[in-house]
Amino acid sequence: MSPFKTTPYWRLSGFYFFYFASLGVFVPYWGLYLQWQGFSAQEIGELTAIFLGTRIIAPNIWGWIADHRGQRMRIVRAASLASVLAFSTIFISNDYLWIAIVMLTFSMFWNATLPQFETNTLQHLGEHSHHYSKIRLWGSIGFIVSVSILGVLFEKLSIELMPVALIITMTGIWITSLTVPESASRHLSLDQQPLIDIIKRPEILAFLIICFLTLLSHGPYYTFYSIYLEHHGYSRALIGQLWALGVVAEVIIFLLVHHLLPKYGLRRVLITSLILSSVRWLLIGLCPDSLIVLLFAQLLHAASFGTFHAAGIAWVHHHFVGKNQARGQALYSSVGFGAGGVVGSLLSGYLWLTPGPTITFCLAAMSTLLATAIAIRWLKITDTIQSL
Length: 388
Known about the structure:
By secondary structure, this protein is mostly helical.
């Protein structure tokens, strides 16, 4: 029987659609908006790092609350509404300190939502967790829709509209969250280890370091890719299409990954993803004037994010069971997207002008090569999706 007959597929998918549509506004165009406001590369890196930095703290705080109080969807709904209200205050001033305060407040709520919703989705799927990608792909579609439309819109009008677009998509998150039910508690295992005992295991520590290094490597891409392409003469409409192409590749791999994981196992999928990530960063750094090369590099987003994230979610779901599920997802988010993202954004901001974009992307490639070596050495070969 299809797992989606007993799962609120479209309501879960709708949340992912609007959540990643919001990222389709923020990730490609936040740097361009700040540049339009007159901020330097270092300030852009710092303001982006604030957004990512709260992922270190917020998911763990809200994860602890959810594990002790339950009612994850109530947290998601409240945090979604609060994030809209907090970000709306960005129009008060364009001062650096004010925008930093807005980003800190807004992102403390924003970053509370996804890990809790991921746990809710996986619990709805139960033993069919490897079908997660079929729901998550709607997030990728949301990203494609927003980034494609806004690339043309900002080209014809102004990047000044970026905050308005973000508020609209975040309101969509809140509205769809009202329709999603709490997951059934029967999917939670009662047999669980203390969280600290899980984290101490060598393969878990190795996995968390790999997540940190992988998301660190994305720092130049998420913070400066649009600025980088605009500097090399690409239009905002084409920049939006390049972002969209990467996520189209992600959608395709999400449709296939539930076949790849059982066939090849988590370890092989993760290692392959890391190797292809290194190739991607080298191509972007060394060949920015070749549209053909950039198109191919964007297709590699299927590996640098798509298969890596799907395998990462499955790894966490396998190793963090029972009431540790929400904290496991929060840890995955805070170490990778949080700490890794912060360091990656800050370093790329400090290195962007000197020694420059090419070296910065080459260093990103070295980061994922180091993660590859750690995966080969410490991730257990027996840890495959078959054991889920």
